[in-house]
Amino acid sequence: MKSRTLLAVLVCTLISMTAFSQSPPYSYGKRKIPLLPMIVTGVKANPPTGKTATPPTHADSVLAGYSDVAKAYFALGQRYEQNAKTLESEANSKFTTGIDGITGNGSISEDEARLQTLQSQNQTDVATAKSYSKQAESMYFLAKTNKFFTSIFTQGGFVKNSADAETYYNGFVSDSKAKFLSNTLLSFGTDGGTASIFNELYADYYGPFRFGFGALVSNKQTPSTGTADPNETKKDAVQRLLGGGGNGVFNLSYPILQMHSQNVFDLKLAASPRLGLDIPTLGTQNGQYALSYNLGLEGSAYYNGDLGVITPFVNFRFAEIGGNGLFYDNLTKTDHQSFAFHQVSFGFAFASMFRLSYGWNFGSAFVKTNFPNAISFSIVPQ
Question: 122 and 213 in one domain?
Fold first, then answer.
């Protein structure tokens, strides 16, 4: 019955909406850049000889030796930046003129209504200007990274703001403040008896950092006697750790490097620590909970075919895992010591959305003994 329930949850997830539980769901495939309409013309198409107002590091000295494509991205960035400044200036001017028009001769209710309308319109106009500014930063990032290798040691910096980070992971930026249901993972153990669904419920960007929160459900089998079976508890703890880390998982990621070749080959590496909270029964008050940390580096590589329909990829994570006493007890790890836990998965992405892979777990002797390899199916909404 529990397995049927889990399958029903999966079906609902597929209708509404990635191969170990990948913290940042990297986009596989050719970069998609939804450009905004230009409203300002006449901006020079070449990088300036001096420094731009935003950001000052994108000068000729930084782009020296770069391809014409990189310089074209830079020119687009300049135009978006000019658009952003024009829109912001017009928004502020319109708001100031509107405020000056409130002379106080009207009734209090009328003046209050006019002020609210002005504020609402100004917020909309400023948000539009910010979207152009964000697109400019994305173009600057694409210009800076339009070569085979870039990293945190690259001249002029690597990922420095939220627009850079979003472009790094997704290939483009969006106007949405946060992303909901952006990363779903279905994982099966090779023994056929355990399965789990991990769903990243929310993800957002704070400067160069990507922050996400997810939840996991596994098909834990409850003995008919009502007494917890240590073996079943261990199996469930193992599956939860493979599937994400617990009922609730917080993950943070910071890009380190990128290697790519004209939208054909791409490799990314990021520092990606996690914090997992595992409550035995969700929706109930329980004083006992398993808490775990996962300090690791995580990355992904893929190679595109001519059509970009079937893409072979590799995901990898190298980490040190530890937690509180209950976390170790659930795993029946009597020494209560942290352990090296590394994961590599190989698979194929279909149409850049569906991913099927086989995961290999290795590291300490404890991992080799207790963590089976797993088949995973995942979905990344477009």
Answer: no
